[in-house]
Design goal:
Helix content is 29%, strand content 22%. The protein contains 13 helices and 21 strands.
């Protein structure tokens, strides 16, 4: 879900604490090969490498790149008849899709008939203690072979990421002050469900839409009847997730309308990108936290004539992700200190940072809306029939993915408050109340999902927006 909150006894340890160049789109009508040929000829006259030629060229990891995700390829003459190609950094996938409607309504799987979905941003790993960079990993046939073995998994994650990108691009234009938070969440979730082609537990939303405002940092989504309205001066964290076969994209951004918050937003975006850059195989998690805090707390923001330092919220963290498990056990701190646990090959992480103009620590507050079945909970006998029925409904519709009361309403649950409390009391379901700093302060968040591939690091949720 949005964030991992550390236990209170751990908080004391942190007192010292932090282009996407759009590919040229070529619409090819399967019923009109003539158009396709004309466009290819035109490109040949310009002596450019056509998308069709590139699409058939295998890249270093053994897969075939899709034209929509190719940012720049240079072909240079080498020794003999060999040619070398160099790929520049890619900044995210094909955010706009090939023939997407406005508003978006065509499932992503229909936009990519070959079922090869856009890569995210490809990054090298940071140099290790032996001063070896990711180029050494990429040049190793063993690592490239391991990469190829995971291509189906990577493709599923990229599909979920493309659905996330197109949803958020639309919502960033659509959301306006004066809308209710329920209206915003329902439009976002309706759009994401269409694009991901929702199909039970095989494809859908990974957790409820977070739309936490101002001093509330995370885990707020409106319950039915909540009249809250988005204001011009609000700082809102839009945090939502998509998944394919439990492969989760956890990605968030901060939405503001008043430019006076620009420095706060810049600080958190910079800190998140710093954490992404520092992440890698064999990197200690506490080193990432130190790097994040240093960047985050180098910023300050002036609000209404008063200057505030931007603080990392020390009891919120990023986290590892596993199939159908949003918090998979490892936490990525955003302040110095913490465990020296290392990241490992083929792990997935949500790298997220939170900045605050307040104390830099959150606590539970407001009405709870987020819930999630305990992943490790064994069988517990239930006496109440209503509890049994609710648990069956949760298992069928959400499994171990997070849900909210609005979603229970949506699948037909009624009069479930006592049953939900009973499941929480027995530890079968965990409640995740909104997490808030002191009232009157402002908090911001940015988050991306990364894959630690054997050959490289892929920021799979990267887009041209952030």
């Amino acid at each position: 879900m949005a964030a991992v909150k550390t236990e209170p006894e751990l908080e004391e340890n942190h007192d010292e604490n932090e282009e996407n160049l759009e590919a040229e789109e070529v619409d090819v009508d399967p019923n009109s090969t003539e158009i396709s040929k004309k466009k290819k000829k035109k490109k040949k006259k310009k002596k450019a490498v056509s998308n069709d030629e590139v699409a058939e060229r295998p890249v270093e990891n053994g897969t075939t790149e899709h034209p929509e995700i190719i940012e720049n390829i240079e072909i240079a003459e080498g020794e003999g008849d060999k040619k070398k190609k160099r790929r520049n950094r890619k900044k995210g996938g094909g955010n706009k899709g090939s023939n997407q409607t406005d508003p978006p309504a065509i499932p992503i799987v229909e936009l990519f008939p070959d079922q090869i979905f856009p890569e995210g941003e490809i990054m090298e790993y940071p140099k290790g203690k032996d001063d070896r960079s990711a180029k050494d990993r990429f040049a190793t046939e063993e690592k490239r072979a391991l990469d190829r073995m995971q291509k189906d998994i990577y493709n599923e994650v990229r599909l979920a990421a493309e659905a996330h990108r197109q949803t958020r691009h639309y919502m960033q234009k659509w959301i306006k002050p004066g809308m209710t938070m329920i209206e915003i969440c329902e439009e976002l979730e309706k759009t994401a469900r269409k694009l991901i082609a929702e199909n039970g537990l095989k494809a859908g939303l990974a957790f409820p839409t977070g739309c936490s405002r101002n001093h509330c940092a995370a885990h707020y989504t409106p319950n039915a009847g909540d009249p809250t309205v988005l204001e011009y001066d609000d700082v809102t964290k839009i945090d939502f997730g998509t998944h394919i076969n439990g492969r989760i994209i956890d990605c968030a951004f901060t939405l503001t309308f008043n430019p006076k918050y620009d420095k706060l937003v810049e600080a958190v975006r910079d800190a998140t990108n710093t954490g992404i850059k520092a992440a890698g195989i064999d990197v200690q998690l506490n080193e990432i936290g130190s790097a994040i805090q240093e960047v985050m707390e180098s910023y300050e923001v002036e609000l209404d004539g008063k200057t505030y330092p931007v603080k990392s919220i020390r009891n919120l963290n990023g986290h590892s992700i596993a199939p159908y498990r949003i918090h998979a056990g490892k936490t990525v701190p955003i302040v110095k200190g913490g465990e020296a646990t290392v990241m490992e090959e083929n792990e997935f992480y949500a790298i997220e940072t939170f900045g605050s103009t307040g104390r830099g620590m959150v606590h539970d507050d407001m009405d709870c809306s987020h819930y999630m079945k305990n992943f490790d909970m064994s069988y517990v006998p239930l006496r109440l029939q209503s509890s049994k029925q609710l648990l069956n409904l949760i298992n069928k519709n959400f499994g171990t993915l997070a849900f909210c009361k609005r979603w229970l309403d949506r699948v037909g649950a009624t009069k479930y408050q006592m049953a939900l409390k009973d499941l929480c009391d027995k530890g079968i379901v965990d409640a995740y109340p909104p997490l808030c700093d002191i009232k009157g302060c402002y908090t911001a968040q940015f988050e991306h999902t990364i894959m630690l591939r054997p050959t490289c690091k892929e920021v799979v949720s990267r887009g041209d927006d952030y």
